[in-house]
Each structure stands twice: as structure tokens, then as C-alpha cells.
From TrEMBL:
Residues 309-357 are annotated as: Disordered. This is Sulfotransferase family protein. It comes from the Bacteria. SUPFAM superfamilies: P-loop containing nucleoside triphosphate hydrolases (SSF52540). It comes from Nocardioides eburneiflavus. GO terms for molecular function: transferase activity. The keyword Protein biosynthesis does not apply.
């Protein structure tokens, strides 16, 4: 049996994914270098390989999908992008290089859920076993944390701004339900962020046994002590409730039930609870389709406005001469006397065109 293991830490951002990735790294798993640099939004570090983040950013742009995208069809778009042969070759080659550093890798990026099929295929080509850890945190805390540290969406302000909260709540439902579906039938675990902060040893050492991670199973006392220093419960700085976030009742109820279903799977990953998630995913798709229908007129108006703005901008552009369109460095190579003759000739040509018009 292969010794190669790759653990994908997935789920919505601001759910404890960085804490989980950092814990596994401290216990001996390798996070491919270089990593995304820590900042004020995540002072302990992100635990994200820079190459992976850049790849996902590129693929999302190619798919016309946002990191937190509420559209159910966005999964079809990223799936199409993931099927590109050249992209699959590129990811498999990079992953194989990382196994030269260590047999047990941890790859974390909130964008990763969009491309799990791509990564699973790459791991298979590298003869590596894939495992998935989905981090769970109450939706109100996730949305509140994003509003606080990333800023609101739609030009609103404040952690509880309705438009940003609605968009991010919908995106959380979409992300979490499809991540559950994408990892179904694979070696996986769902870990509550609160459990990780309360006593990290229980969920993490359970992962070590379930995924056969030697780095975790053979952790030294010094590594365990380092994790105790790394995990800081005070970093759970946002503990909002629905009273703090303005979301329509139907979406709030669906998000609450999604949390309940995923929380149930964390304890019992049974067919019954998986079917519950299927039902919720169908309900969400229906609710989103209704919202799109309601907003259709706004979408059409925005498209018309964008087209009109583009036409006005094109009309406002001055009619530049041929000489103006030649790069300065090239013009400088032409002797001054020759440049003067060319300008006169071009002016005569322009005047002739205007007369014919």
C-alpha cells in the first residue's frame, strides 16, 4: 500500500481551516512552500501553498466563478475547467514534486472545494491516497467573520449589512452542501471548529487513526506542546447570531437546516444524513432559481447600462493617428528628418480621407 497521503482541508473560509492546516503541519505533515503570508485577518498564518492559491484564482477567473459563489450552476463551470487535459497534467506534475519533500501533505485553500475532482485525479496519478477534512462553523459566525474582516459586498457597510450577509449566507449553503456531495464516498471527516478549539487532541488524533497519518500517530511531546501554543481560542473573535445579520426567513431557515444536517454528519456519516443533504441541495437550487427570476429585470438593466457605457467610452476615444499608435521606442529609432517627412505624408493622407468622407 502506498505511503503517500494528501489531506485536503476544505469548507468555507473563516471556518477554522487555517487552524486545522496549521495543526497538521506542526505535527509533521508538509505544507508545500512557499505559503501565503499571514496578515491581520489571520495572524497565525493561512497554511495555504502560494502555488495552489494562484492556480485556483486562475481557474476561477477562467470559469467566471467567485470564491464565494452562490450560484448552483457555478459547480458545472468549474467542473468543465477542471476537465482540461493540460491543467490536469500541470497539477499532477506539481503534486508529484511535492512528494519529493514528504510522503504526507496537507493542502488547504477555501477555493479548493471547486476543484476537488481535479485534485483527486492528480493524487491518483501520483499513487497517493486522498483524504478530506471539512471544517464546520455556524453559518452566522462564518458570515459575520467575513463581513468583519473582508468587508461587506455590494457597497454596503457594517458586519450585518443585509446585501453582503444575504450573498454570503447563500454562498455558504451552496459551498457546504456541494462540498459534502463532492467528498461523499471518499475518506473524509467533518470537524467542528468549536471542538478543535476546546480540545484539539480528540478530533486531530481521531483523524490520524482514520487517515493513517504517521505524522499525527507518532507525534512527539514537543510537537504536541507546539500545537497547544499554536491553537488560540481567543481567535474565535466573531460570535454573531441571526439577530446581528439581516437575512430573509426562508434563506435563514435553509441555512439553519444545512448546519443541522452537516453537524449530524460529523457524528454519523450515514446514508440517512447524506440524503438529508441531497434534499437541502435540491431545495436550495429551487430557492436560488426563484431569486434569479425575481432579479431578472435588474440583470437585464445592468447589462444594458454596461453596454451603453462601453459605447460612450468608445465614442469618446479620440481618433489617434497611425504615428500615435507606434510605440515611442520605435519612433525614436527613426531619424528626425525622416520623422518630419512621415508626419507630413500622414497629415496629407488624413486630410485626403476627410475630404472623401
Amino acid at each position: 500500500m502506498t505511503k503517500r497521503r494528501v489531506v485536503f482541508v476544505v469548507g468555507s473560509g473563516r471556518s477554522g481551516t487555517s487552524t486545522m492546516a496549521g495543526t497538521l503541519r506542526t505535527l509533521g505533515l508538509h505544507v508545500p512552500q512557499p505559503e501565503v503570508v499571514a496578515d491581520a485577518t489571520n495572524p497565525k498564518g493561512f497554511g495555504e501553498p502560494r502555488w495552489v492559491v494562484d492556480l485556483h484564482t486562475e481557474l476561477l477567473a477562467r470559469s467566471n466563478v467567485q470564491v464565494s459563489d452562490a450560484r448552483p450552476r457555478a459547480w458545472l463551470d468549474t467542473g468543465t475547467t477542471s476537465g482540461d487535459h493540460a491543467t490536469r497534467e500541470r497539477v499532477a506534475a506539481w503534486l508529484d514534486e511535492q512528494f519529493a519533500v514528504g510522503d504526507e501533505l496537507v493542502i488547504k485553500d477555501p477555493r479548493a472545494s471547486w476543484f476537488l475532482g481535479l485534485w483527486r485525479a492528480a493524487a491518483d496519478r501520483c499513487d497517493a491516497t486522498s483524504s478530506y477534512v471539512t471544517m464546520l462553523r455556524p453559518v452566522t459566525e462564518v458570515v459575520g467573520s467575513k463581513q468583519t474582516y473582508y468587508g461587506p459586498t455590494g457597497g454596503q457597510s457594517g458586519a450585518g449589512s443585509d446585501q453582503g450577509a444575504i450573498t454570503r449566507t447563500a454562498a455558504w449553503v451552496n459551498m457546504m452542501l456541494h462540498t459534502e456531495r463532492a467528498t461523499r464516498g471518499q475518506q473524509r471527516a467533518f470537524v467542528r471548529y468549536g471542538d478543535l478549539l476546546d480540545d484539539w487532541t480528540q478530533p486531530v488524533f481521531a483523524l490520524g487513526e482514520a487517515f493513517d497519518l504517521q505524522g499525527v500517530k507518532t507525534a512527539m511531546a514537543v510537537d504536541i506542546a507546539e500545537v497547544h501554543r499554536f491553537i488560540d481560542p481567543s481567535l474565535r473573535r466573531v460570535t454573531m447570531t441571526w439577530d446581528d445579520i439581516g437575512v430573509p426567513d426562508r434563506l435563514r431557515d435553509l441555512a439553519d437546516e444545512t448546519w443541522q444536517a452537516l453537524d449530524a454528519i460529523a457524528s454519523d456519516d450515514s446514508a440517512k444524513n447524506q440524503e438529508w443533504c441531497d434534499q437541502l441541495r435540491t431545495a436550495y437550487a429551487g430557492q436560488y432559481a426563484e431569486a434569479e427570476a425575481f432579479a431578472h429585470s435588474t440583470v437585464v438593466a445592468q447589462r444594458r447600462r454596461a453596454a451603453a457605457d462601453a459605447r460612450r467610452e468608445a465614442t469618446a476615444q479620440p481618433d489617434r493617428s497611425v504615428a500615435d499608435r507606434v510605440p515611442h521606442a520605435v519612433r525614436a529609432m527613426v531619424p528626425p528628418a525622416a520623422r518630419q517627412k512621415l508626419r507630413k505624408a500622414l497629415r496629407r493622407e488624413r486630410s485626403s480621407r476627410q475630404d472623401r468622407a
